[in-house]
Every structure is written in C-alpha cells, then in structure tokens.
C-alpha cells in the first residue's frame, strides 16, 4: 500500500549544521496491518513517519501511496490526501488548548465544508467507541492524560482515514491505559485500517496486536 | 456554494472560539477600536453636516456687503456714502444696515443687536433669539432692560421670540427698531454700519465688487462666495483641535495595529502548525485569520459608525459641545439635518478595516506557509 | 447557538442598520426641508452672514466680517485665545494681499 524508495531526509541543508536524518530507506508497508517502528531516539523513526503521513517531503526519494507517487505533489493535493487518508496521533497529543474535546475532534474536517451537524454526529459516534462521550464538552486542558490521548485518537479518526499513524502512543500512559490502547488498535485492524506506530515500549512492540516490527538506527533500517 | 459557505462558517466558528479564549483582551480590543471609529466618524459626520447646512442656509446672505475701512479698521458709513455708489449696473438694491454688539454684564454674554424696519418691530419692542430668551428666562410680552454704553437704562418689551429651529443663526440676536437702535447706541445720525447690496446676476458680482472698490477706495466689499468659503473651511482637518484629535486617533490606531502585527508567540505558531498537521491547507489558515481581522474590524467600524450617527444627529454631538462652546456663554441648541459624506465614510472604512486585517495577517504568513513537520519537534 | 451564526447574524443586523442610515440621509425629510428653507429665508430677510456658533467675541461671532486688526490677535489673521480659534481658519479675505487698500489713485501723488 505504501512504498518508500530510497528516502533520504536532511535538515538545514547547505548550512554548517546540516543533519541527515534518513540515509536511504526502502520499505514496503502492507495494508490492513499494524507496523511498529522501534529504535533509539534520533534513529529517524519520527521523521520517517512524517514523510509517510505527508507532513513533510523527503529530500530525495519517492513515496508511493496506493500506486500513486505523492512525494512530488503540490501542497494542495498533498493536504487533500493527508486529510482524507491519514490520521495522525502525536506524541504530545497537540490538542488546541482552550477548545473543548468536541471542537478539537471536528477541527480536521472544517476545510471539507461538511455540515456541522454531520460532524458532531460522527464525533459522537467516535466518542462512544472510545468511551469519551461524557467528556465531549470539557476543555482539553482539564482532561487526564488518558482522556487527552483518546481525544487525539478521535481527532485522527474524524475524516475516516485508511491509515492511522501514531508517534510514541503509550509514552505518557500507564500500563492499564497502554493495554486499553492496544485494544483500540486491534479494533482498527478489525475495521480494515492500516496502522503505523513508533515506540520504545516493549508492551507495544511485543504485543500480539502488532503484525510487523521494523527496526531503525541512525537513519537506516536494521531488521526489515 | 453550500460547501463553501459551510466551510466559511466552520472557519468563523474556530476563529470565534479562538478569540473567546482571551475574552477580556479581545472585548477590550473591540471596544477600543469601536471608540476610535466612533470619535473619528462623529467628527466627520458633524463637520460635514455643519458645513452643508451653513452652505445651504447662508446662500441667502446678501451678495455684497460693503464695509468702510479707516486705517485698516472697520468704520461707520457716513451719510451720502450710499449715493456715492451711484448707479452701478447690476445692483438691484442697496440698503444701509445697522447692527452692533452689546455686552450684557448680567450673563457676561455678547449679544448682536440688529435694527429692523418698523413693520417688523415697533418702537419699544424687541425680538430675541431663542438661546438668549432661554438664558434670561424671557418669553413673549416680558420686559427686559439693557444699560446702554452711555449709562442710560432702556426697557423693551419682547414682542416675539425667534424660532428655536433657527438657533444656529439667531441664538444671540436682538432685533429692534431703527429709532431704538440709534438712541440706544447713540449712533450718529445718518450713519450706517455697512451696506448690503443685492446683485441680480451671480456672475456679475465680482465685477460689481471691483467697480465698488474703485469707486470707493476706502471700502471693503465682502462677497457672498467669500462668506460661504469661510464656512467651507470650518473644522477643516488642518485646524488645531481637529488635527489634534485626528492625530491622536491615528496614533492610537497605529499602536493597536502594531501590537497585532508584531509577531506571533510560540504558542500561536504551534497552533498554526497543528492546524496544518491535521489537514488544513495554507489557504485555510489564512482565510481563518482573515475572518478574524474582518470580524473585529467590521464590527468595530459598523458599531462605531452607527453610534456616531446617533450621537451627532440625535444627541447633537454632545461630546463636542464643550469644545465648541469654548468661552461662550450663549451656545445655540441645534439639531443638524442628517447628511453623510459617502466619500469620507468610505475612506474611514478603508483606513480602519484593511490595515487592521492586514496587521492580523502579516505575522501569520510565514507560519502558515511552513511545513507542518515542525510541529512534531 | 452556533457562534458563527451569532456573529454573521449580528453583522447582518449592523449592515442593515447602516443601509437604513444611508437610506435616511439620501432624501431630506419634509420637516427638515422646511426647517432649512425657513432658516434660509430668515438669512435673506435679516441679511445674516454668519452662524451664531462662537459668541465669545465679536470677531469670532462674525468671522466673515472681521477686520484686519482686533485685540488679542497674535497674527493679523489669527483668531486666538478662544477655543474657536483652533476650529476656524481666518477668512480667506484676510489672508489675501491687501495691496488694494493702499489706494490706487487716479491722480499722481
């Protein structure tokens, strides 16, 4: 479903502090499965995920999504694909403070111009699935860590994406909540969604919910 | 179309929710902005209305007023002067006028005394302007005494009070008969204050004035067009107080816009990054911010303008009254005829709405066009 | 109620009010017209030349008739020491050249 050909990424190119995060990644990611990326910090996992999720472009190399080359697309089309096909759950959640959980969740759908009632209904469904219904009107800064993460997941789901990308999803959660998260992941697989995630956590990487583990070190793949 | 509309409503929802996070600050901003527009619009509306009314009403002023100057000062018209004018072609009527000023120690006010023909005011009677009547508690058939400059006391009966609608023109007028005028001021017999001439053809007025000036070298003709021009430049923006208010308002506005434009906080940058990361295009972010600028500036402008209109035309520009009244004792109560100078209001609109919206957009431009991966870091 | 509906609704109300105002001022009402014409008639009848706005001193009361020299003027054309001085410029005739008052005589000096 997702094919990466010789992906290289550099930061601050042509400047004294030039830094290559990825040194040529070739990877093929299967649809409908959960793929976990493990590796120490600085190995380039997060960078790779942002490239796959159309949040940034590779310095060189190609990304193919469902057969179509997306790395060269203009911003508008890239954003379209990002919005429709990818849902991102950030490590820091990156929710917008001062807004309620509901408002945060429906935010990614605003540019689509779908009617608000439709969005609120969809958000309601997702909240029910994630057992957040009673907190939908609360301001996000008042939510607990686990609740915030579920709001972040709900936000990633509002546009019904095919691929969910989660960066260090259990880093801020205790064991119980981590196990709950893995159960949610299994639900995604059951619904036919593809999941990519990064993690240090053995609870995640060694879980039965994960179908494939990809190792990374210093911007290169280790175990394929 | 529906999708576009719904999308704009979504963007507005977000903008308002975003502004609501700092409710007091943003409401304060809106109020300050509205106040600014209110003051500027009030000034514009008031001065324009006053000028238009003056121009319309003073179009009935005499075409030429002839004054006599002695050593650069205004002097009386001696007997026989009127005839020296001779028969200048185009002059329909020439009339010697009698008018002057009287200082009333009771109110510390200055009145303008004018002599009128006998069919308007009888001897022993006066007509007074409404402001005067109000200040001295006068009504029809009341009597009032004035002490002349020679020390004698003169008593008059008020035969009529001039219409309150004409206060702007007649606030301090006292109309009395010619005989009374002459005896009150001990005006030398046969002398007049000045001469009013009416000229039939408006294009001839300048020629007539030139002829008068050459026939009577010590005269000073004042044309109606000069009278009108004086009132065209009343409250001109170059005049002292107007310029001060204008400068103050513009400065306040610049500070407002500068505060907005002086860059984003890290928090705001991060939020724009988040919006882009969750699927908003650069265009969406910019549109949303434009709505923020427009909503605030449009609301402030409309509110300020409407408030200014009500202030000027229903409350008689009460805020400017102390300035206009200055050291006068008699101040006319007047309601201006509502009129709006479209061009000035449009200018006000462009200079308040667009700079503010631009000030909101400029700092987010850079943040809006960067790739969202910066959010991840 | 949805915030955008509130905001757009309020803007619509304000814009309508503005249009109403413009509608109002586009035509003189009957009473206003009567008032203006009555005042103009008064001006014609009495031969008035000035508005009675500034009654502080004689040269502010009749700015169009003021002469070149009056008390308390720092500059021959300036109205000063009264607030009205900062609102009214000196009449154009006072700032023009007055060479003609030097008197062009027909006979040689």
TrEMBL record, chain A:
One of its GO terms (molecular function) is ATP binding. Gene3D superfamilies: P-loop containing nucleotide triphosphate hydrolases. GO terms for cellular component: plasma membrane. It holds the Pfam family ABC_tran. Keywords: ATP-binding, Cell membrane, Membrane, Nucleotide-binding, Transport. Residues 2-224 form the ABC transporter domain. This is ABC transporter related protein.
């Amino acid at each position: 479903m997702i094919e990466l050909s010789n992906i290289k990424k550099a930061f601050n190119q042509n400047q004294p502090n030039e830094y290559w995060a990825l040194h040529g990644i070739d990877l093929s990611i299967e649809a409908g499965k959960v793929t976990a990326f493990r590796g120490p910090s600085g190995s380039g996992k997060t960078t790779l995920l942002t490239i796959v999720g159309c949040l940034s472009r590779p310095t060189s190399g190609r990304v193919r999504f469902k057969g179509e080359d997306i790395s060269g697309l203009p911003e508008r089309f890239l954003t379209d694909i990002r919005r429709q096909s990818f849902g991102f759950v950030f490590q820091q959640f990156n929710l917008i403070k001062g807004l309620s959980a509901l408002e945060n969740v429906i935010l990614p759908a605003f540019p689509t111009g779908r009617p608000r009632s439709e969005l609120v209904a969809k958000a309601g469904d997702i909240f029910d699935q994630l057992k957040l219904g009673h907190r939908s009107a609360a301001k996000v800064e008042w939510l607990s860590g686990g609740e915030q993460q579920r709001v972040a997941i709900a936000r990633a789901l509002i546009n019904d994406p095919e691929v969910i990308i989660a960066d260090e999803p259990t880093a801020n959660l205790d064991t119980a909540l981590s196990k709950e998260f893995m159960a949610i992941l299994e639900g995604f697989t059951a619904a036919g969604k593809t999941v990519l995630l990064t993690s240090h956590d053995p609870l995640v990487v060694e879980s039965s919910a994960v179908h494939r583990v990809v190792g990374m070190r210093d911007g290169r793949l280790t175990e394929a | 179309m529906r999708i576009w509309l719904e999308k704009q409503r979504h963007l507005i929802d977000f903008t308002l929710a975003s502004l609501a996070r700092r409710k007091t600050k943003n409401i304060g901003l809106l109020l300050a902005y509205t106040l600014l527009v209110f003051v500027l619009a009030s000034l514009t509306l008031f001065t324009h209305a006053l000028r238009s009314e003056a121009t319309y009403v003073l179009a009935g002023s005499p075409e030429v007023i002839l004054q006599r100057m002695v050593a650069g000062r205004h002097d009386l018209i001696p007997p026989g002067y009127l005839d020296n004018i001779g028969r200048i072609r185009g002059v329909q009527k020439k009339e010697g006028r009698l008018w002057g000023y009287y200082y009333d120690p009771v109110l510390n006010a200055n009145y303008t005394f004018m002599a009128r023909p006998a069919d308007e005011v009888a001897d022993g009677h006066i007509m007074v302007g409404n402001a005067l009547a109000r200040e001295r508690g006068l009504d029809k058939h009341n009597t009032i005494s004035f002490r002349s400059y020679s020390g004698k006391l003169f008593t008059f009966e008020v035969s009529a009070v001039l219409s309150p609608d004409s206060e702007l023109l007649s606030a301090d007028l006292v109309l009395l008969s010619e005989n009374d005028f002459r005896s009150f001021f001990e005006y030398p017999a046969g002398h007049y204050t000045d001469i009013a001439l009416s000229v039939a053809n408006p294009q001839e007025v300048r020629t007539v004035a030139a002829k008068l000036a050459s026939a009577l070298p010590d005269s000073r003709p004042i044309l109606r067009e000069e009278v009108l021009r004086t009132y065209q430049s009343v409250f001109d923006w170059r005049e002292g107080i107007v310029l001060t208010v204008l400068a103050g308002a513009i400065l306040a506005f610049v500070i407002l816009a500068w505060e907005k434009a002086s860059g984003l906080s890290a928090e705001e940058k991060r939020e724009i990054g988040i919006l882009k990361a969750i699927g908003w295009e650069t265009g969406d972010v910019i549109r949303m911010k434009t709505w923020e600028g427009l909503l605030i500036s449009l609301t402030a402008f409309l509110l300020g303008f409407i408030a200014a209109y009500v202030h000027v035309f229903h409350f008689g520009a009460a805020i400017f009254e102390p300035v206009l009244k200055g050291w006068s004792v008699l101040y006319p109560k007047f309601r201006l005829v509502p009129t709006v100078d479209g061009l000035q209001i449009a200018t006000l609109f462009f200079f308040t709405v667009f700079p503010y919206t631009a000030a909101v957009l400029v700092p987010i431009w850079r943040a809006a066009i960067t790739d969202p991966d910066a959010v991840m870091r | 109620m949805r915030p955008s509906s509130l905001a757009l609704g309020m803007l619509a109300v304000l814009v309508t009010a503005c249009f109403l105002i413009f509608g109002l001022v586009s035509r003189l009402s009957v009473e206003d017209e009567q008032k203006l014409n009555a005042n103009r008639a008064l001006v014609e009848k009495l031969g008035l030349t000035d508005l009675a706005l500034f009654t502080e001193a004689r040269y502010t009361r009749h700015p169009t008739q003021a002469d070149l020299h009056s008390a308390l003027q720092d500059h021959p054309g300036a109205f000063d020491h009264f607030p009205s001085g900062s609102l009214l410029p000196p009449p154009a005739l006072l700032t023009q050249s007055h060479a003609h008052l030097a008197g062009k005589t027909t006979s040689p000096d």
